[in-house]
Design brief:
By secondary structure, the protein is mainly alpha-helical. It folds into 2 domains: about 50 residues; about 110 residues, Homeodomain-like (Arc Repressor Mutant, subunit A), CATH 1.10.10.60. About 70% of the residues lie in helices and about 5% in strands. It has 9 helices and 2 strands, in the order βααβααααααα. Strands 1-2 form a two-stranded antiparallel ribbon. α3 packs across α5 and α6 packs across α8. The radius of gyration is 19 Å and the shape is flat. The model has no long low-confidence stretch (mean pLDDT about 85).
Length: about 170
């Protein structure tokens, strides 16, 4: 029987934790990784849906909207713009994400922007203000707050922290 995982965010977070804990050289790394793999498998099992249940028009609409956001996240100013471009209404957009994703459409859009911001900070050599503007945040203070809410570190310290991180 073929199935798919409906919500990917808990899987992604657990997998990231697995990688982070596995790269440590501690006596607890192996048992922690074993437990995290078990957790990962249980999450997949719990969130699995039959492939047939994702063959609905609602799921096809969700995929179309998610793909639209993914390809245009820097251009999009609001969820209303997404809904209008995808020819659906905003409440239905939110219901689709609640049903098939583990983030709201706004959270998904912001996370994509903040991932792009992190890449720009690390590879683009841009200032925080320039990075914020490039990611659709004209106010650098608002950008910093949003960035910190996603990455748990201010953008002003992000580059330094990531570049000085030593592999273990």
């Amino acid at each position: 029987m073929i199935s798919q995982c409906r919500k990917s965010e808990p899987i992604r977070r657990t997998f990231d934790t697995l990688i982070e804990r596995g790269s440590r050289n501690s006596p607890y790394s192996r048992p922690l990784c074993k437990a995290l793999i078990q957790q990962l498998l249980l999450i997949c099992r719990e969130d699995a849906v039959d492939a047939g249940s994702t063959d609905t028009r609602a799921y096809a609409t969700f995929q179309r909207v998610r793909d639209y956001i993914t390809s245009r996240y820097l251009e999009l100013g609001s969820l209303e713009a997404v809904a209008t471009a995808c020819e659906i209404d905003a409440p239905y957009l939110c219901r689709l994400f609640a049903r098939f994703h583990d983030e709201s459409p706004y959270q998904y859009l912001v996370r994509l922007r903040m991932q792009h911001a992190a890449t720009l900070l690390l590879e683009g050599g841009m200032s925080v203000k320039e990075t914020g503007r490039a990611c659709g945040f004209p106010d650098p203070f608002h950008f910093s707050r949003v960035f910190k809410s996603i990455h748990r570190i201010p953008p002003s310290r992000f580059r330094e922290a990531m570049l000085t991180k030593t592999p273990r």
